[in-house]
User: Fold Acyl-CoA dehydrogenase family protein from Brevibacterium spongiae.
Amino acid sequence: MAFDITADEQELVDAVVSISKDVLVPQAAAADANERVSDETLKTLAEVGVMGLNLPEEFGGPGVGSVAMSQMVAAITEACASTASIVTAQFLATDSILLGGTDAQREAWLPRTAAGEVIGAFGLTEPGAGSNPAEMSTKATRVDGGWHLKGTKCFITNAGFADFIVVYAKTDVDAGHKGISAFIVDTKAASAGLDFNPPEKTMGLRGSPVYEFVIDTVVPEDALLGVEGEGFTTAMRVLDRGRIEVAAMSLGIGKAALDAAVDWAGERKISGKPLNRLQGIAFKLADMYTKYRSAWLLTMDAAEQRDAEVDFTRSSATAKLAASEAAAFIADEALQIHGGYGFTRDFPLERYVRDARIYRIYEGSSEIQRTIIARSLSK
Assistant:
């Protein structure tokens, strides 16, 4: 399992690692406290291609493979999880267009998102739909000149400041998931029909705001993403890819917390001996590393399968489940090793614990990942 990347990919990985250390780490605590990653930070990432990491070169992206991309997402998250959340939320939007859109739609939106000129959001989740998108209540009805979209979406990262939102809605209420379509909503053009609530007051990823919004507006005919009735299929393909990105983000939190714990256990002394000389602490570190390394291998394996263009649904679910659970365990144990100091905001451990918690919920909870894995095993 070499998980090789090209020399060009490695050069970009190195650049992202450097920016993460020099730019993202110093602003991570401020982004959390101020509840917003700065536009300047996103612009810096766009300049090296991060905002379009998921896109091929023909649409302005760097054209990197999923293995290299996962390593870069992990590096960004290790430095600032809120920044990674904004970036990967955009990937969900642009993946929707890449996988389900027309050539004209790809050409109109993807190069601009890759360049950092516009920000996208992925409008799937609803207050009453839970983990089953087929239960969504947002509807799209044909009218003269286009489609009337009406409904409510919630927990949508980037939505309040996005330039476009890919909104999923039912175009046939009697067809179940086969009646779901997607639409590219230009937020500037549709501003009169979009009502955003204030950002949610979240436990973690505070620098990456999430919003509930009500949509009641008419969008033009060409806002329909690709083919009517293909929205559910597109969303599931997007989430398969997105789960690898959540796994990579989990790796970033896991590594940051593990490194902090290793350093602290080597420096902090009790009765004249460093903490890592105590078997109870040493065993914690060993368990933390084992979970991290296992998650890393599963994530890179899923990324490699994605690059090979084989069915990677089970692999992405497995990686997401293992990595998100590992990140939570490692962050909590790292805080425990720091004792009372870990509970203060003088150290980043409490932020790691808060940020890691959502990875077991969004883009499919751990319970949903287990369901996906179990179903695949029975086929």
In short: Strands lie at 120-123, 139-143, 146-157, 164-170, 180-186, 194-196, 210-220, 269-270, 273-274. The longest strand covers residues 146-157.
